[in-house]
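Dig into what follows:

_____
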Amino acid sequence: MSVRRRAWTDPVAGKTVDAWFVDVKFRSLGGRVQRIRKFSPVQTKRGAEQYEQQLRQSLLDGTYGKQEEEEVPRETPTLAAFAKEFIDTYATANNKPSEVQTKQSILKWHLVPEMGSLKLNEIGQRKIETYKARKLESGLSPKTVNNHLTVLRRLLSLAVEWEQLDHLPPFKWLKVPDPEFDFLDFEEAGRLVAGADEAWRPMILTGLKAGLRLGELIALRWEDVDLVAGRIMVRRAVARGIVGTPKSGRSREIPTSDELLRALKGHRHLRGELVFCDADGRLLTKEECKHPLWRACKRAGLRLLGWHALRHTFASHLVMRGAPIKAVQELLGHATIEMTMRYSHLSPDVRKDAVSLLDRAPVGAQGGHKIENEG
């Protein structure tokens, strides 16, 4: 096929992306074969097909090389102009709806107001450093500014891929401290469950004992819960009111503890397909879920917590009980082991146990540290 969608791994986004690509082979009367491979300037199937026809016609007319020489130098688009194409053509096709909304928001309220009038080839390292300084001065955190830079870099990378920009400027990321996380100890977790409203107790317990994110709890369906085998399949999540895949993009399986399994069996209802829903079976909102958790915290005499603290508690308790970090990573659905390693310090005996291995006698040793040749 001479017109196709070409896929490749984007090192910035860490995912597979694709774009319409034209691959034309042309044999002249003298037998010379030319091969032209280019991204279509219009990123639709019809646009790519029309672009292929134009290339073939210019090759037949013998004007392909001459036409390129006589072409007026390419007009580099401004950031504001290319941002619209970036969202409408690339982000909408390759990102989750929630990710598209995030990119739109960053472009609309930050990048375009600051650099929208600049042409893409005018956005160099100095402009990027100025942007970083201004945003930090306005009170944004280094992590938030890095999020902005990630969107800008992806946009400029796409402009290079689409031959709208010659090269990508260098980016220097701001140093971000390791994120702090709050979690409950075993006694506090028990008090929280006891202090929860009866209707909300199964959902809070699922957060504590299965580590689901709030969006995953809200989107959980009964078809994802096996009350016989005792397991939960996390297949979907809610983000900004839209049901999609989990954050990692992959589903995962979580075995249920006996306590959680009993709670879910007792919670089984006929209000609809959602496990946790309102009285009419409708999807809960994150705002609706905030105050029931806070009420449970107050009754338990605890500090006010967010739902993500329950997920941190799940991971922390596993590590403190001696669960392997790799198993914890799989249960949490983390993309990398580095994300899970922040819990590793909670294992009180892991370093001591590792060093104590040096005191064990080697397998096959007959006592003593020196083995002499008896022959």
